[in-house]
């Protein structure tokens, strides 16, 4: 386990509020702007960063993240550059945990050993690899955990009681509860159902449970945050970036500023969730 | 686990994790895992259930028209002046290709599982038509994802699907071909896990699809093996089939895999040539990677991004291949060769003129390989080719290339 991730969740628990976990696509719309966005996230109140690794065929993602990946790839993003982005970020932030999120093939082609070496050296704390379920743990999960990199698993509404222990078996860092079936960027489900699902997961693990899929506003973040250890926001940030670009998909002055404003607002949501939970 | 308890057999795979050597597996999002495990459980039950097999055989005989004939192509044999050429006439099946064999099998399974909605992906539209057909036959709603490029170049099949009551959803992501359609179908499935059955059209995807689709298609090879023994009193020297995802090929190959004197040849789409980007020769010019739930040979760049590929044949226009083919290639049991667009076109025209059979552009690739090999073989030797589909759907594509007014 990387100390950074555990320390961050321990600090937040002491503070009595959920984490704000923010996702963005590495290299969208270009390397320099994307790095500027990454640097802005913790300053605006993000506690954990999910750094997206673009893939040509993102089968579990909705249109927003698909397009973000296409913009990043068009701008020349590669896995090597995504790792470099983390390295560049670490020059000025040693505390915010970074989770790489994406699909397996680019890692497989990069080489698992080489990838894990480079990820550790770049200051990566965790991995979410969408198309590696527990049945495929020997591919990447087991070697990653052996090196001390967290392997964060997605649990979903289809993950029943029988399957949950298997899903949690090699999970570390936190559990990412995907609050509905479907692709990223879909609508927000009923918060009360989410609370029940989080409790169900917590019967099987002491890890923090973060909830994602569908969170767009500070109000969503507050509502979800009241019953979870963290709130994951992805598509809303990616959409914010997309809406700030020129017709040709290039960066504008509003790009980084827009993300900052959105994340600041979401951060106020999770910070008020502390009060909601205490009520 | 090893490939098979019987190490002398090439037919024992996959293992319980769905692996053929290093290929295959279950590389899917967690949302889909419970479904895939359930599918496997239900498939394991069904394949050993005599009632299921009886219904499958009955629909095969009376709805599909099985067994399909084995045809000695006398005029083509004479023309080429070498080996005797036999066609397994899968193009005579109901809906015009081998795809229906798999669709009937899977819809029976979907029904058994209590699913009420069918989704499918299609490239050339043959699988879409076959899916729409069985959905109509069993009274289930059907959504077919089809790349926008393919919607355009396979217009007759799009119309057929609509007539059959299916909803055709054009996919504009990527190049708008089969790969993109499959991504979109997977997204639909992830979203509608409760009621939806994903009817995959080829012997690829997460376990158990490669095994299940192969088993439904292996009827082709089983029949052909019996038929050739009856016609010639011996097995063929070579079995040839076109490979996109590879379901018609694995279907005819599989029953021959342990006949060590039978050479097995898969024909990939060489497109405009292997030097550039415009081909779909995953084995000949690709490398192992992970896409659409399985590890297999893929067309990809150095960063592991999947390339689009190109083929004149929409059915072969896929940057991957079924995992069992990847394994058969690596262990040396089958060989895979490329055929270019123009060679397939010439073969298409030759067969039309000389045998009065208009083949689909997919088996026209296999035919082009037959045309290369037969003259170099002895007159006492035998080639068996899977004529997997008819060419009605391709006349507009071919007409356009030949500059004919339709």
Descriptive notes:
The complex is a heterodimer of chains A (279) and B (406). Chain A has helices at 3-15, 31-44, 63-74, 79-90, 104-110, 112-121, 141-146, 164-169, 191-202, 218-225, 235-244, 253-278, and strands at residues 19-25, 48-52, 98-102, 126-129, 150-151, 154-155, 175-178, 209-212, 230-233. Chain A has 279 residues and is α/β, with parallel strands linked by helices. Chain A has a single domain, classed as Aldolase class I (TIM Barrel, Alpha-Beta Barrel), CATH 3.20.20.70. The mean pLDDT of chain A is 92. Chain B folds into 2 domains: 20-60 and 99-213, Rossmann fold; 67-96 and 217-402, Rossmann fold, CATH 3.40.50. Chain B has 16 helices and 14 strands. In chain B, a hairpin with a 1-residue loop joins strand 11 (287-291) and strand 12 (293-298). Chain B is globular and about 55 Å long. The N and C termini of chain B lie far apart (56 Å). The relative contact order of chain B is 0.16. Chains A and B meet through helix 5 and strand 6 of A and strand 2, helix 1, helix 8, strand 11 and strand 12 of B.
Give a short summary of the structure:
The complex is a heterodimer of chains A (279) and B (406). Chain A is of the alpha/beta class. Chain A contains twelve helices and nine strands.
Which key phrases capture this entry?
heterodimer; A: 279 residues; alpha/beta; TIM Barrel; nine-stranded parallel beta sheet; 12 helices; 9 strands; 49% helix; 13% strand; B: 406 residues; Rossmann fold; 2 domains; six-stranded mixed beta sheet; four-stranded antiparallel beta sheet; 16 helices; 14 strands; 42% helix; Trp_synthase_suA (chain A); tryptophan synthase activity (chain A)
Give me the secondary-structure topology.
The complex is a heterodimer of chains A (279) and B (406).
Chain A: H1 3-15, E1 19-25, H2 31-44, E2 48-52, H3 63-74, H4 79-90, E3 98-102, H5 104-110, H6 112-121, E4 126-129, H7 141-146, E5 150-151, E6 154-155, H8 164-169, E7 175-178, H9 191-202, E8 209-212, H10 218-225, E9 230-233, H11 235-244, H12 253-278
Parallel strand pairs in A: 1-2, 1-9, 2-3, 3-4, 4-5, 6-7, 7-8, 8-9
Helix pairs in contact in A: 2-4, 2-12, 10-12, 11-12
Chain B: E1 19-20, E2 23-27, H1 33-47, H2 50-64, E3 70-72, H3 74-80, E4 84-89, H4 99-112, E5 117-122, H5 126-138, E6 142-147, H6 148-153, H7 155-163, E7 167-171, H8 178-191, E8 196-198, H9 209-217, H10 219-232, E9 238-242, H11 247-253, E10 263-271, H12 282-285, E11 287-291, E12 293-298, H13 323-330, E13 334-340, H14 341-355, H15 361-373, E14 382-387, H16 395-402
Parallel strand pairs in B: 4-14, 5-6, 5-8, 6-7, 9-10, 9-14, 10-13
Antiparallel strand pairs in B: 1-2, 2-12, 3-4, 11-12
Helix pairs in contact in B: 2-4, 4-5, 4-9, 5-7, 9-11, 10-11, 14-15
């Amino acid at each position: 386990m990387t100390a950074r991730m555990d320390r961050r969740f321990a600090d937040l628990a002491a503070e009595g509020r959920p984490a704000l976990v923010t996702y963005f696509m590495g290299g969208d719309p270009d390397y320099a702007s994307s790095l500027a966005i990454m640097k802005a996230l913790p300053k605006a109140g993000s506690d954990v960063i999910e750094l997206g690794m673009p893939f040509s065929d993102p089968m579990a993602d909705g249109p927003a993240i698909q397009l973000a990946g296409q913009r990043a790839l068009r701008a020349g993003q590669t896995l090597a550059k995504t790792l470099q982005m983390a390295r560049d970020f670490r020059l000025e932030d040693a505390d915010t945990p970074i989770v790489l999120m994406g699909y397996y093939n680019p890692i497989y082609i990069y080489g698992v050993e080489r990838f894990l070496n480079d990820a550790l050296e770049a200051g990566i704390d965790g991995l979410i690899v969408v198309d590696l379920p527990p049945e495929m743990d020997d591919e990447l999960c087991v070697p990653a955990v052996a090196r001390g990199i967290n392997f964060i698993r997605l649990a979903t509404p289809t993950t029943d009681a029988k399957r949950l222990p298997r899903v949690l078996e090699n999970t570390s860092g936190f559990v990412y509860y995907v609050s509905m079936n479907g692709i990223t960027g879909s609508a927000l489900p009923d918060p009360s159902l989410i609370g029940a699902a989080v409790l169900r997961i917590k019967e099987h693990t002491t890890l923090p449970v973060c909830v994602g899929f569908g969170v767009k506003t500070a109000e969503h973040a507050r509502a979800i945050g009241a019953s979870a250890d963290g709130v994951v926001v992805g598509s809303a940030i990616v959409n914010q970036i997309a809406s700030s670009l020129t017709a040709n998909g290039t960066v504008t002055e509003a790009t980084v500023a827009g993300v900052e404003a959105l994340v600041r607002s979401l951060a106020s949501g999770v910070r008020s969730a502390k009060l909601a939970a205490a009520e | 686990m090893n490939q098979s308890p019987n190490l002398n057999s090439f037919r024992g795979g996959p293992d319980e994790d769905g692996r053929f050597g290093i290929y295959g597996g279950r590389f899917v999002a967690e949302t889909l895992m419970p479904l895939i495990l359930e599918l496997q459980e239900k498939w394991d039950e069904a394949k050993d259930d005599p009632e299921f097999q009886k219904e499958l055989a009955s629909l095969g005989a009376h709805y599909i028209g099985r067994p399909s004939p084995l045809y000695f192509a006398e005029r083509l044999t004479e023309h080429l002046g070498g080996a005797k050429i036999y066609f397994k006439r899968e193009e005579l099946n109901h809906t015009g290709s081998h795809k229906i064999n798999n669709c009937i099998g899977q819809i029976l399974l979907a029904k058994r599982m209590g699913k009420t909605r069918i989704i499918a992906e299609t490239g050339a539209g043959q699988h879409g038509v076959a899916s729409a057909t069985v959905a109509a036959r069993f009274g289930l709603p059907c959504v077919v994802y089809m790349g926008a490029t393919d919607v355009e170049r396979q217009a007759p099949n799009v119309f057929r699907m609509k007539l059959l009551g299916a909803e055709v959803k054009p996919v504009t992501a990527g190049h708008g071909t089969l790969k993109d359609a499959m991504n979109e179908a997977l997204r639909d499935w992830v979203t509608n896990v409760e009621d939806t059955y994903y009817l995959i059209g080829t012997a690829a995807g997460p376990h158990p699809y490669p095994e299940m689709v192969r088993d439904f298609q292996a009827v082709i090879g089983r029949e052909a093996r019996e038929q050739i023994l009856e016609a010639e009193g011996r097995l063929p020297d070579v079995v040839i089939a076109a490979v996109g995802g590879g379901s018609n090929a694995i279907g005819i190959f599989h029953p021959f895999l342990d006949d060590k004197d039978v050479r097995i040849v898969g024909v990939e789409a060489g497109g405009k040539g292997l030097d550039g980007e415009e081909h779909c020769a995953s084995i000949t010019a690709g490398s192992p990677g992970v896409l659409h739930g399985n590890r297999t040979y893929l067309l990809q760049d150095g960063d592991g991004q999947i390339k689009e590929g190109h083929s004149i044949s929409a059915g072969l226009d896929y940057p991957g291949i079924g995992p069992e083919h990847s394994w058969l290639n690596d262990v040396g049991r089958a060989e895979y060769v490329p055929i270019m667009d123009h060679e397939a076109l010439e073969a298409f025209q030759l067969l039309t003129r000389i045998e009065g059979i208009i083949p689909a552009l997919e088996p026209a690739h296999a035919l082009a390989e037959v045309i290369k090999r037969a003259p170099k073989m002895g007159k006492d030797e035998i080639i068996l080719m899977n004529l997997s589909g008819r060419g009605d759907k391709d006349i507009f594509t071919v007409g356009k290339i030949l500059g004919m007014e339709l």
